[in-house]
Amino acid sequence: MRRxxxxxxxxxxxxxxxxxxxxxxxxxxxxxxxxxxYFDVICAAYKTTRKELLIIKQDQIRDDQLxxxxxxxxxxxxxxxxxxxxxxRGQDYLVVAGRYKLGVDIFRYSSGAVTGKPYEDAYxxxxxxxxxxxxxxxxxxxLVNLRLLVEHYHSPPDVVMKARATGDNFIQINQxxxxxxxxxx
Length: 185
What we know:
The chain has helices at residues 2-29, 33-46, 50-57, 66-76, 80-88, 93-99, 119-126, 137-153, 157-165, 170-180. By secondary structure, the chain is mostly helical. It folds into two domains: 1-30; 32-180, no CATH class. Helix 4 crosses helix 5 and helix 7 packs across helix 8. It is globular. Residues 17-26 have low confidence and may be disordered.
């Protein structure tokens, strides 16, 4: 009886140590503070963990595509791994969304005036909103990340749009917004 308790205590202790080590490994695998901050915004918006993001990234998913994977998965009420599997089979995001009966409107973000490329292209591809939309994967990445950053920081959409038009990536834009604005509570 006492031996069983010792074995159980040892298992519990080792499990706790492994969990702690796994968290350290996750934090150390994202050594860039700007990338870590971008991941934290994604995690907050989609109520997930950095560990989940890193699991998705293992499948060669770009950082700026992580919000798209989670956005479609949430709207379709399916695990993100299903979206990743379809992407690995070569399906674009519009086809993946259509597979789950999701229209292009899930990518639309009502932003008022549209400023500069790439958003002018994306919104041109959204109009008229029909099943024959010409939205590209890049359009979808831009639209979903626009929504993510605007909603998180309560920033005017044109701030993100103008930054993208100058060539900034979403990690850089997130870093700028984090220093200039306060995120929503």
